[in-house]
Task: inverse folding
């Protein structure tokens, strides 16, 4: 059951997202409320991250056939809940979250699917939650790169380049590829679940 709480709709600025729906996931001003019921965006986000985690780990691909419908449905749910202001806020969040990673993408550090994944996250969840997921995903991916570099004896080369370039991009330069989308999705699943059971 999809529920949208009218009394919670404007509890936060449009660029941060709303406080609606799923009672256990009740963080005022972030992604839940005391309204009860199941939040469609919460369910959509969790299912989306599970699928992306699987495809990126198994096939090293994040499929447009998954990204596009989720992006559209996320915008529709935002519009249905908060009108044009909420829909515009979702687009702003997606753009803000994806923009820094577009630069890394142009440098060849990450794939286009990773950028689109982050844009979808910006649409689906409040900006502060999406940033938390993105930062932790980048940190864990960086650790993964360091582990592989250590196994190959390339740690010193990697660390020398970190002063001027992003860790993920340097991993690619050294021929190290890690599934960034998997780690972002896994961190997202953990963060959303921990926030959900913490109430």
Result:
């Amino acid at each position: 059951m999809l529920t949208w709480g009218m009394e919670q709709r404007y509890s936060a600025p449009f660029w941060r997202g709303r406080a609606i729906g799923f009672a256990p996931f009740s963080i005022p001003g972030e992604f839940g409320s005391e309204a009860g019921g199941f939040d469609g965006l919460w369910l959509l986000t969790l299912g989306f991250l599970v699928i992306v985690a699987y495809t990126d780990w198994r096939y090293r691909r994040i499929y447009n056939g998954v990204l596009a419908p989720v992006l559209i449905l996320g915008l529709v749910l935002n519009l249905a809940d908060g009108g044009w202001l909420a829909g515009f806020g979702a687009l702003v969040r997606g753009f803000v979250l994806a923009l820094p990673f577009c630069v890394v993408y142009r440098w060849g550090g990450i794939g286009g699917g990773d950028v689109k994944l982050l844009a979808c996250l910006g649409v689906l969840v409040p900006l502060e939650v999406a940033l938390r997921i993105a930062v932790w995903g980048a940190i864990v991916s960086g650790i993964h790169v360091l582990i592989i570099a250590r196994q190959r004896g390339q740690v010193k080369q990697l660390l020398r380049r970190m002063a001027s370039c992003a860790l993920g991009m340097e991993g690619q330069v050294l021929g190290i590829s890690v599934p960034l989308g998997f780690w972002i999705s896994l961190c997202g699943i953990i963060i959303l679940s921990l926030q959900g059971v913490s109430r």
